[in-house]
Design brief:
With 355 residues, the chain is of the alpha+beta class. Helices cover 36% and strands 23% of the residues. This is Diphosphomevalonate decarboxylase.
Length: 355
Amino acid sequence: MGDRQVFQASTTAPVNIAVIKYWGKRDPKLNLPTNSSLSVTLSQLDLRTHTTASCSSSFSSPDSLTLNGSPQDVSSARTQACLRELRQLRRQLEDSDTKLPKLSEMPLRIVSENNFPTAAGLASSAAGFAALVRVIADLYQLSSTPTELSRIARQGSGSACRSLFGGYVAWEKGTEADGSDSVAVEVAPVSHWPEMRALILVVSAEKKGVSSTSGMQATVATSTLFPERAERTVPKRMEEMKKAILDRDFDTFGKVTMRDSNSFHATCLDTDPPIFYMNDISRAAVRMVEEINQAAGKVIAAYTFDAGPNAVIYYLAENEHAVAGLFKNILGSKDGWAGSRGSAVQSNSEAQFNA
Ligand code: DP6
């Protein structure tokens, strides 16, 4: 009976949105970044991947993974790197206590679901790899800390290392050649600045044209603006951003967020051939934020864009009406998907957002 037993664990991990962007790898194999980055995870938006992992010697080999019901390729170097490291940690436990079941030798069945429509075009690899690493660590009863697990999740997808924590999280680029110090650390928990809010303006639900991985490689290889960004601009902004968060200074938080998004997209435009992630609707969102801030006489809203046209707008709860209210009025309410605290709206120009 013992060897037919099925061992199982479940977990969820959240999507995170960077306010200082990771863009560029100094070591593509170990997924080591050229610069540190910083993100915010808002439970308010409640965008998560839920993952269940089970293992049993009765399962047939090899390992398997399904996402939203579709089988995924587990043989990719990234997934393999994560599974290898986790099995190695489990093996150490099994070697030190021979009574433990040999889970490290059993095939894994991993089942993942995103609680947001894949069609929303939101980056899900961050939540996906964070959930995958966390759930197997739980299944294997590893005592690793979130920072230790972030080193493993980083090898799945860079941004995933920041999703091992909630709240305000830095991914320190590290200096070691083996990547042992390229890990995520908490800057502050959500409770430190609970008034922070975000809304996502889904400009396009289509899959991005140039993947982050190939886009950033091209930028590193060709952009002359890039070294300035990686070596001087970002290190300074990391310090400004950490201080702004610790001081709960939205003015600086917002300014640095917007400037860093623009700096990242400038290096994309400076890539040869150029990469365009923002489109006309993205630029209209930038203008709207500018107008909201001008009308308020200070920065009360901050936009940021990842490797696609969708905008994330940060604001404080006290400005809900001025920021989210205005976007809702302009776009008009329509059926869509809802987060834990809000409803989705959709405009007739295919824009939709979740507040
Ligand atoms: C623009 O983490 O998706 O969202 O490490 O190649 O998987 P890989 O890249 P990924 O890149 C995310 C880039 C970004 C900025 C960010 O999240 O920091």
